[in-house]
Amino acid sequence: MKNKDQLPVKKALKLNMRALKAIYRRYPQMVLSCLALQIWRAVTPYVEIYLSALIIGEITGDKDPRRLKFLILAALVSTAVIGLGSALLAKWRDTQNSGRWHKFNWLYSQKVLDMDFADVDDTKTHEVLSTIMQNQNGGGWGLTRVIGCYEKLFSSVFTLLGGIALTVTLFTSKVPESAGAYTILNHPLFVLLVIAVMLAVTYAAPSLSNKSKSYWSRNADQNRLGNRLFGYFGFLGSNRELAEDIRMYRQDIICDRHNGDKESAFYSKGIFAKLSIGPKGLYSAAASGVSVIFTGIVYLFVCLKALAGAFGLGSVTQYVASVTKVANGVSSFISTIGDMRANGSFLSLVFEFLDIPNNMYQGSLTVEKRQDRNYEVEFRNVSFKYPGSESYSLRNVNIKFKVGERLAVVGMNGSGKTTFIKLLCRLYDPTEGEILLNGINIKKYNYWDYMMIFSVVFQDFKLFALKLGENVASGSEYDRALAVGCLEKAGFGERLAEMPDGLDTYLYTSYNKDGINVSGGEAQQIAIARSLYKNAPFIILDEPTAALDPIAEAEIYSKFDEIAGDKTAIYISHRLSSCKFCDEIAVFHEGAVVQQGTHEELVSDKNGKYHELWHAQAQYYTKE
Ligand code: ADP
CB within 6 Å of ligand 1 — which residues? Predict the structure, then answer.
């Protein structure tokens, strides 16, 4: 089997270190508290082992009551201090690690927020992120595993150091010459032989265990596929949005074909079950067997030396306990390195995501906050191709709009209207040409500052399952009167009056069981209210009335001037009747602005696109 997913140890360890540093930068106390507790837990048992050995030595040796009293007191005090220290460190660790899962997910969310929108919009980015999540949720691989690995690594290293300190005398203390044949135990070669056998056995156990574990990463493709199928099909049945279709078309049968497939990765006849019966299971069993051999050798060597008179009974307990701990330390060290190596391939995917560069130029100019809202935006010869696309979605667009204007952008589906808005909001940068705000290229402004001058109601807007008021204000501290005013302007006033808790009513039931469900049209009204609450100088409505019934649509139009107030409103629609009232209409066709003017001007141009579209759609509204 080709070991294609196992990284070289050095590379994997570097990735683990990088991941630890990244976590430390964001959550230093989380890392420090975990490591401190592990060091404490690794070192303190030796105090007890050492004191117990002294007590047993005293009981079986000199039997001095004063020294015994002192040793017992020391043992009691140290046990109390160790216990208290452990409890305090554990409390610190638990506090810093609460919500660890959420904190890691936050790192990914933050990255999505910080990356260029072109990458957010790219399906490849989401495939990588979804694979990272599947690895994390399915097997705990990726960032979540890093701290655990370092905990084990620190624990094993400190266990080793403490154990070695208490074990050195096992090898240096001599059997007396009078012990006859036992004096062979003093021979340096014999000592070296014992150490070599111990090390070999100590190395073999975790190596075999790592070999067993490596089957996970060797078969990472099947592991991922299994998780992916489960992640998708396993939860479809409980998805509320799909419930109607699933019943209507009995789609549960298709889902079940994947869920119930015994041959798929994690099921009884799948690859991991076969490997567990076969080599994976054998390596794991061999690892356990080999550990027992180690314990046997330790007991034999220590007891033979004690029998020959090299040391007393107290030291026997000390040596057996500490050598066993040293072995556990080595074993845990090797198995942790194996774990880190296996995690390396998952971490490289994590960094593939976290390292997505920001290619968009980030300016630093602040957008002047003008009381007069005197902003002017100009598209100067702008052309645009989506990344990876051969054809232009916008071609040589020249358009200018000023404060207070009502601009309608009309055109057939696919004519470039939404792309135009995406460029205006700097979700993408033009491939050619430039966009200017008050005469300055928008790239030169601070990105978030520039965003503040726009309110957009996208076609596929989303509301949160939070309180109505929080949705409108995008925050929990807000001006309630203003929120109510915005909802009323957007046509949601009557519905608001019926709501039992007014602005405090939860939307949807995913977060609060008393939440209310709103229709598509009502959701759109709330989204419009949200855009008004932001009070940005530009308000952009992308097909704003698509989900509204004709009465609600008419209401929005009749009040549109009042709604938009002194804002510059950009209105995108393929329904021409919605745009009649705008000061200026730009007609998009195949990515270009083919006509511009008022409704009257455009409709009277019999050869124009607008005339054609108007008459094609007229049948829907002339009867009214
Ligand atoms: P409209 O809003 O007028 O319906 P769009 O601006 O959405 O039109 O689309 C304009 C053109 O750009 C269409 O040909 C569409 O297929 C293409 N397009 C839109 N989004 C993408 C994208 N993310 N990647 C590649 N092409 C796209």
Answer: 121, 386, 389, 393, 411, 413-419
Are 131 and 224 a contacting pair, CB within 8 Å? yes
Task: Give the tens place of pLDDT for each residue, 40-86.
Answer: 999 999 999 999 999 998 998 888 999 999 999 999 999 999 999 99
**Domain coverage including residue 123:** 9-354
* 424 in any annotated domain: no
Which CATH number is 468's domain given?
A: 3.40.50.300
- Nearest Cα residue to atom 24 of ligand 1: 386
In a domain, 548, yes or no: no
How far does residue 503's CA lie from ligand 1's centre (Å)?
37
Confidence at 216, pLDDT banded by 50, 70, 90 = confident
Q: Are residue 177 and residue 313 in the same domain, yes or no? A: yes
Please give the structure tokens belonging to residue 449.
């500052």
> 190 lies in a domain?
yes
- Nearest atom in ligand 1 to the alpha carbon of residue 413 is 4
pTM for the predicted model, two decimal places? 0.74
Which atom of ligand 1 sits closest to the CA of residue 419? 6
CATH code at 85? 1.20.1560.10
Query: Could you tell which of 390, 413, 418 is best to mutate to test the pocket of ligand 1, judged by most ligand atoms within 8 Å of the CB?
Result: 418
Long-range Cβ contact pairs of 31-34 (< 8 A, separation 24 or more): 31/147, 31/150, 32/96, 33/89, 33/92, 33/93, 33/95, 33/96, 33/97, 34/93, 34/96, 34/97, 34/147, 34/150, 34/151
- Structural domain count of the chain: 2
